[in-house]
């Protein structure tokens, strides 16, 4: 006997969990399926003892969405966030520099938050009385089969424990390697940058002063992103910890990672020099990780009774830190579109193909523009073409002139905020 719900969401990460909460708040029956085992409160607390080198640069729009589902309030209470009021972008081989934000009158541009801090807040909210009646979490079980039963019935989802779930609408929020996308036969447009990102947490000699920094190097982008202060020692001397995302050609990244395995100070020395000692020397380095850089876009976001959101639908270069923010904009657009048609139909139509296509027309062109814009920026600053002298001169002068046009800088700031 299949357990029935109005909506099934596969993927319990930040995008999937936020979407589930938004639907439950509107008193829609939703089941969230996450292959990862559920964590106990002790598990969460153990994870919180450690600093995660990875952070998400949450835009104002993403923060607002998290406020709506009641998660941001918990994040703010925990203190595990690092707000930033300025952003500095400059290039190694030119005079141009872009400065976002007003130093004289600081205003929030966004906040850097570790992934598991956001997830903990979302999962705490799922257990709250105002949503728990409508939201069911199925954790620790993998999907083995997706069975489309026709437009009226939607999908049956079979799990590895023998359980069967049924829903009129199936939402794939299961990441870049999306099972939902593959099973639906939706193809991908992909782009390999032939780069690898090295991630780590660093403690710098000078404080970051609530500023996110991005240095455009000939080898790739180097981002220095504020991290929350975790320990009592951190809080006594605040704003010295940062997350690093350093994009490099794959061979160079592998060379540095191997060198770091032999000499623990080697990466710290290389990184300090690459950053042009923007915040002095690097005193500590920890939590080194890496991942290949690619971009991808699903050729379609929707099919009958099925829709993709977040990384299941698109993935972009991390140089602007907009990957999660694009997924959160997907959530806001999908919920708005679903309920607009649901209310128009008097509560009869849910997740119709025409509705899903309206969502796709809203989000896919926007995500495409963002993906190709980031690719263009990477192409202009890194690689053989970017090293040509005329390109360097045009790029340098262009950045210099753009930085002087305040209305244009305010426009860019607004777009980055997702507003």
Automatic annotation (TrEMBL):
Which Gene Ontology terms describe the biological processes this protein takes part in? ubiquinone biosynthetic process
Key words, A-Z: FAD, Flavoprotein, Monooxygenase, Oxidoreductase
Q: Which InterPro entries match?
A: FAD-bd, FAD/NAD-bd_sf, Ubi_Hdrlase_CS, UbiH/COQ6, UbiH/COQ6_monooxygenase
This protein's cofactor list reads: FAD
Under Gene3D superfamilies, the record lists: FAD/NAD(P)-binding domain
Record keywords: Flavoprotein included? Answer: yes
* Domain called FAD-binding: residue spans: 5-368
Q: Which GO terms describe its molecular function?
A: FAD binding; monooxygenase activity; oxidoreductase activity, acting on paired donors, with incorporation or reduction of molecular oxygen
| Record pathway | Cofactor biosynthesis; ubiquinone biosynthesis
Would you identify the family this protein belongs to, as annotated?
Answer: Belongs to the UbiH/COQ6 family.
Quote the protein name from its UniProt record.
FAD-dependent oxidoreductase
Q: Which organism is it from?
A: Psychrobacter sanguinis
């Amino acid at each position: 006997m299949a357990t029935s719900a109005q909506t099934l969401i596969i993927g319990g990460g930040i995008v999937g969990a936020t979407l589930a909460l938004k639907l439950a708040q509107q008193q829609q029956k939703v089941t969230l399926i996450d292959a990862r085992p559920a964590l106990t409160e002790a598990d969460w607390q153990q994870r919180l003892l450690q600093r995660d080198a990875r952070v998400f640069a949450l835009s104002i729009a993403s923060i607002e969405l998290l406020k709506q589902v009641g998660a941001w309030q918990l994040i703010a209470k925990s203190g595990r966030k690092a707000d930033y009021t300025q952003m500095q972008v400059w290039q190694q081989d030119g005079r141009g520099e872009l400065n976002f934000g007003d130093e004289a009158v600081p205003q929030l541009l966004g906040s850097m938050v570790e992934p598991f801090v956001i997830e903990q807040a979302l999962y705490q909210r799922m257990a709250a009385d105002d949503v728990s009646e409508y939201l069911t979490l199925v954790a620790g079980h993998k999907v083995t089969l997706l069975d489309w039963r026709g437009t009226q019935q939607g999908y049956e989802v079979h799990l590895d424990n023998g359980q069967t779930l049924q829903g009129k609408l199936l939402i794939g929020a299961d990441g870049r390697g999306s099972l939902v996308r593959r099973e639906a036969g939706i193809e991908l447009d992909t782009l390999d940058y032939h780069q690898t990102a090295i991630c780590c947490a660093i403690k710098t000699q000078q404080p970051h002063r609530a500023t996110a920094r991005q240095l455009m190097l000939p080898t790739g982008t180097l981002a220095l992103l504020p991290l929350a202060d975790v320990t009592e020692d951190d809080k006594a001397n605040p704003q010295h910890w940062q997350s690093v995302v350093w994009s490099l050609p794959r061979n160079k990244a592998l060379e540095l990672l191997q060198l770091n395995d032999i000499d623990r100070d080697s990466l710290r020395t290389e990184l300090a020099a690459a950053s042009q000692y923007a915040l002095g020397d690097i005193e500590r380095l920890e939590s080194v990780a890496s991942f290949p850089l690619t971009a991808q876009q699903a050729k379609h976001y929707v099919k009958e009774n099925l829709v993709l959101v977040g990384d299941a639908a698109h993935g972009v270069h991390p140089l602007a830190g907009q990957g999660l923010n694009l997924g959160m904009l997907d959530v806001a657009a999908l919920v708005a579109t679903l309920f607009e048609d649901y209310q128009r139909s008097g509560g009869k139509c849910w997740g119709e193909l025409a509705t899903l296509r309206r969502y796709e027309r809203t989000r896919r062109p926007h995500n495409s523009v963002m993906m190709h814009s980031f690719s263009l920026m990477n192409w202009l600053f890194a690689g053989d073409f970017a090293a040509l002298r005329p390109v360097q001169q045009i790029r340098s002068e262009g950045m210099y002139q753009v930085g002087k046009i305040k209305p244009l800088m305010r426009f860019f700031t607004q777009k980055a905020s997702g507003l």
